[in-house]
Amino acid sequence: MRMGSVPALLFCFCACAPLTAALHIEVVRGEGNNNQYGRPGESILVRVSDDAGKPVKGASVIFSTVATVPSEPYVDFGGNGTAAQAETDESGTAGGPPARAAGGNGPVEVAVVAGKDGETANATVHQMNLGFVAETGKGEPEIAKLPLPDGQRLTDSHGDRIVRLKVIDSAGKPVAGAKVLLYFPPHKSGQDSARTENVAVESRSDGTVSLALDPKKFRGIKAIRISAVANGVTSTRFFMIE
């Protein structure tokens, strides 16, 4: 099980509570959700009641991802990790941070533990992660600037400045055939758009690209804009000129 920032409280619920729980958990929202990569997640909402069916106010609720091996898909709660804590209100309801897809495509289980005054209840929410870019080949590519190999000069025999880049996907795998475009700032201040340099090269099988920049064209320019287009998606990064 992946744990987030509240493992101690979760352990206390499980280790200290009696086997027979007087609390009950109803999953109001989140059961059967499809979590799409790159889209805002939805919070899981539960309602805690007692044996009489009355709402329980002030119960602590822990949401945590259940996974048997590290490579399994899971959810991230609002960017704060794989566990989150909430407290029920007057109606007995509590919601966790938005559950965002992470780890890969496939089924996800979220364990829910509620506790108050030594009584606990447990529930499991079943969801599905879809659209992971490492499997679909889609998503925004990443552009990384690479250092020059040992012994290679910053300029070639023509005096052009050499810049090496690598295009990768979100899983860190190289993207071959990505179209790489180079942009310089506008000729004059106040112009709306950058001018496109006559550079449109494709990344190699290892995702790398080498650009030769004429120093006369970027004299006085401190940064250039590079765009990479892969699978119909464009990513843009700015790089300082050394």
State the strand order across the main sheet. 2-10-9-4-6
What's the number of domains? 2
CATH class of the largest domain: Mainly Beta
Average pLDDT reading:
76
Specify the helix fraction band: under 10%
Query: Structural class per helix/strand content?
Result: mainly beta
Poorly predicted parts: 1-5, 14-20, 188-196
* Shape category: elongated
N-to-C SSE string, H for helix and E for strand: HEEEEEEEEEEHEEEEEEE
Q: Could you name the CATH homologous superfamily of the largest domain?
A: Immunoglobulins
- Strand fraction equals over 45%
CATH architectural name of the largest domain = Sandwich
Rg over CA atoms: 26 Å
SS element count, helices: 2
CATH fold description of the largest domain: Immunoglobulin-like
Number of strands: 17
How far is it from the N-terminal to the C-terminal residue, by CA? 46 Å
> What can be said about the biggest beta sheet?
5 strands, mixed
In short:
The chain is mainly β. The protein is built from 2 helices and 17 strands. A hairpin with a 2-residue loop joins strand 9 and strand 10.
List keywords for this structure.
242 residues; mainly beta; Immunoglobulin-like; 2 domains; 4-stranded antiparallel beta sheet; 2 helices; 45% strand; elongated
